[in-house]
Every structure is written in C-alpha cells, then in structure tokens.
Write a structure and sequence with these properties.
InterPro entries: LRR_dom_sf (IPR032675). The chain is of the alpha/beta class. It has 6 helices and 11 strands. It has an 11-stranded parallel beta sheet with strand order 1-2-3-4-5-6-7-8-9-10-11, with no helix packed on it.
Amino acid sequence: MQLPSSSSLQDLTFKFCTGVVLVPVENGGGIQEDKSLLQSLSILRCREFFCRWPMGESESIYPFPASLEKLYVLDEPSMKSIAVLSNLTSLTSLSLLKCNNLTVNGFNPLIVVNLIQLQVHGCNTLAVDMLSEVASQRAKLLPAGYISGLKKLTVDDICGLLVAPICNLLAPALHTLEFLCDERMESFTKEQEKVLQLLTFLEKLIFFRCWCLQSLPQGLHRLSSLKELRVVDCPKIRSMPNEGLPVSLTKLVMNHRSAEIEEQIEKIKRTNPDLSVSDDYYTQGNTCRPPILFFYF
C-alpha cells in the first residue's frame, strides 16, 4: 500500500484492513513529509501494516509525517520497535494497544514532550519502559526546564508505574490515571502508597478490571484533589480504605460492592452528603463504552 501525499488530508483511519501493508519509502511508501498536513491517524486491527517496514534503530526514514498530533494503534503485532515513531515530536495523544511485539528499542524521549494523553496497554512493559527512560534522560535529552504536560494516562501495570522517578515526572500535570486490566497486582506496598501521594493534582482515579486487586490504597484519603473514583469489575476488593475517602471526592462509581463496603459508603456519605454513588460505569458521565475498550474486547 502507498499513502498518497495530500495538502488537505488531516484525519486517516485504517480499520480491520487485514492484509494492508505499508510500503517502504524507497518503493514510494509512507506519507510525503514535505506535503502532508496529516494530524490524526488510527490503525485498528490491520495486523500486518508494518510487516515490510524496516524496524532498525538506525533508520532515519519514518513512515509518518512529523505533523502528526494523534496516533492510535490497536492490535498490530507487525509493529516491533517504537523507533518508527521517533520523528513524531508534535504528538499530543498516543495510544498503543495490544501491540505485543512492540519494544522500547530506539525510543526517542522527545516524542513525549507535547503529550497530553497516553494510553499503553497489552504491550508488555512498554509503558513503564518509556516513562522510565524519560524520567532518567530528561536532564540530558529533553528541553531545558522540561515539565511533563501529560494529563491523562492509561496503563496496565500498577506496580511498574508506582515508583518515585515516574510519579515525580508525572506529578506537575497528571489529573486522570486509569489502571486497565492489571492481572497481577494484589495489594499496595508502603512504598507504592507513598509514591502515589506525589500525584498531588490527581482528580480522577480508575481501576478497571483489575481482577486480582484485593484492596484500594490505604492512603487514598490523602489525595486532596481527587474528585472521582471508579472501581469497576474488581470483585476481590471487599472493603474501603480504613481512613475512608478524600473529602474532595464528589463521585464514586463501584460495582461488586460487598455488604461491608455498602456500610462504609453510607458512613462516608453522612460526612460527605454531596457524594454521588453509582455502580454503573457506562451511565455516569459515559454515554458509550470507553474508546479504549470499544475495539479491545
């Protein structure tokens, strides 16, 4: 497949195009850098899209133009190195889902400079590897005085994310944190509890289908900016934190509530009568299934 250069094309989606292959530049493939105004690209379950594109770290020719601001890639096993995105330093939104062969090899930390939203799931340890690299290299490779502007983050590795270097990096702007389908985490260590407190501007915290999680963070009440907590399909959580929830909380969405949790919620509502409580994820401010899940399952 060859992508035509265009001075007007801004939004492009490939969906379920199995067998569609991106042709290398030497064969006329890619998008012509000097002519493209492409801003948004989605590649959804094409599966062989990158199978002919060279994935070496030393490659200096890239498949997509630097004008790209939003990239969404779902279920693409042919994508094996994040080096193919190294020129995308204008990205504000990046979603990499179920790209299980994708590695951090060749990662350019500059692609995160303008990121506002990042979703990485089903890519082994990629999310943590990327953020760890940025945290360790920001003094050397990123602009002087760089402060992360990342506001929304979705990952599937609670344990890997809750370390001091990463949370210090995220602290200045992060207001929404979603843990999606973590199948390993059972409980929080004291160190992880401490590190979570670094996210002082966090307003929305989501645990979605974390099947093994048995408890919420005990220090949750100290997140003084938290307004919304969603705990969905985490059936092993049988009680709320001993110290309750933040007084700032205005919305709680939680299903699979035990009798003990119901009793604790009633107690919390007596001191916070404005707290809205629901067990329905999809009707409380969500008019449809979350985009990350619509194609995922």
